[in-house]
Design goal:
The chain is an alpha/beta fold. It has helices spanning 42-49, 75-80, 97-106, 112-125, 141-153, 171-186, 198-204; strands at residues 2-9, 19-26, 31-35, 57-62, 65-66, 82-86, 159-163, 190-195, 207-212, 215-221, 242-243. Bound molecules: adenosine-5'-diphosphate (ADP). Adenosine-5'-diphosphate is lined by residues 11, 14, 18, 36, 38-44.
Length: 244
């Protein structure tokens, strides 16, 4: 679903690559945590998948499309395959919950009948039944993120990208949100979540790809995320993963 083949990204007027020689294959329906310190290249990875940035070298395939060859006019079709969720929710403050979600369908020209049916279904999916007429400021942070997730998935994209989606949430709410992303993943969506939240990564035991200074330093299935990789993980171990 997402294939990076020896991808390097160097931003203009910088000397060091933000991503260097990255090869990674994320299959259809996988759930991947992309972890690493601030500045390690996580957002750059997500921006390349969306073709908000272009690779300096290497090949990127997303949902069967070769991004290096794709003309600009195909970008809207690519982006319809990809839902995106951010740390800061990015809701429209003057629209209700239902209007925020409906807006994502209006801009791609869906019919009113389709919108009337799909928006309540999606609000049910994210656990916001009964909150459709509220405005963002009348919701908790966790609820606002649920609205953002509803908006991201209402068009049933093949891929959901989440950039630090729990960054503004308390630990319990963070776990709820990641469980919701997992539910969406189980409904056959490929999910890539960039995070440095150890607790949520350790709670879910999914594939973990770790970046450091633009390079992949770890790619493990069903892994945890050690706070201190040099510490003794103890008799139980703590990353329980199978190197791949
Ligand atoms: P992360 O999401 O893990 O914090 P980023 O992908 O944002 O990492 O950043 C990776 C590296 O690229 C950092 O060194 C950052 O300073 C640099 N970088 C990110 N965006 C830009 C940009 N638009 N122009 C120049 N350098 C950038």
């Amino acid at each position: 679903m997402i294939l990076f083949d020896r991808v390097t990204k160097t931003y203009p007027r910088t000397t060091r690559a933000a991503l260097e020689d990255i090869s990674l294959d994320i299959g259809r329906g996988e759930f991947v945590f992309l972890v690493g310190k601030s500045g390690s290249g996580k957002s750059t990875f997500l921006r390349l998948v969306l073709r908000e940035e272009r690779a300096s070298s290497g090949r990127i395939l997303v949902a069967g499309r070769d991004l290096s060859k794709m003309p600009e006019r195909h970008l809207p079709a690519l982006r319809r395959e990809i839902g995106v969720v951010f740390q800061d929710f990015r809701l429209l403050p003057n629209k209700t919950v239902a209007q925020n979600v409906a807006f994502a369908l209006q801009v791609i020209g869906r019919s009113r009948a389709h919108i009337r049916q799909t928006v309540p279904e999606t609000l049910d999916l994210v656990g916001l039944t009964g909150k459709d007429k509220r405005f963002p400021h009348q919701l908790s942070a966790g609820e606002q993120q649920r609205v953002a997730i509803a908006r991201a998935v209402v068009n049933k994209p093949a891929i959901l990208l989440a950039d630090e989606p729990t960054g503004n949430l308390d630990p319990a709410t963070s776990l709820d949100i990641v469980m919701l992303l997992d539910r969406i993943h189980r409904a056959n969506t490929t999910v890539v979540m960039a995070t440095h939240d150890h607790d949520v990564v350790n709670a879910l035991r999914k594939r973990v790809v770790e970046l450091k200074d633009g390079s992949i330093v770890r790619d493990q299935v069903q892994a945890g995320y050690r706070v201190n990789p040099t510490a003794d993980p103890g008799p139980e171990g703590n990353d329980g993963g199978v190197p791949s």
